[in-house]
Amino acid sequence: MQGKIQSTDFGGLTPPEQFLLHDESAVNYAEHLGELMADLAPANYLERRQVELITQADVDIDRQRRIIAECLHPSAAINHSQQVVIDWRRARNNDTDEALTRGEDRQPAPPEGDPYATKAIAQAYAKQHSALELHYKALADAERRRRTSIEFLYSMQDRRARAKIPDAEVIE
After folding, report:
1. Per-residue pLDDT tens over the stretch 89-133
2. Closest CA to 75 of 47, 99, 107
3. Is residue 44 part of a domain?
């Protein structure tokens, strides 16, 4: 794919600013849409629209996974009084202001994982169970929407390909 995609490449489709959140990149969305357009090769507007719906479902899937991961971050289990104690201990141990402002609690897990975070993750899950249930349902809905959109695109492409086949002649 060639660098940055211009929005005019996808005329007639929904502008990404209408559905992307502030932490989502319109450039990344356009690149993903461009890759799917190249891979799935839509031939007309309806097929391009299906590819757009597939891309939007991908964005929604990624969004729900990010939200779930954020809700289950070990620091989500910490309540206000625990945070006060953590801050006091850091100040008492003369941690630098730089270390405090970096937000060490929000760092991603190491590649091998952190088995000591399990308890905090379980507490975060229990604390936000009903909210997480909503996000898991939204994730399942987005995955179902994606599968349905792909299936419908393939059926449209199959129908188009069959229309190009000349009718068979019956010879007696």
Report:
1. 667 776 554 554 445 556 666 667 777 778 888 888 888 888 999
2. 107
3. yes
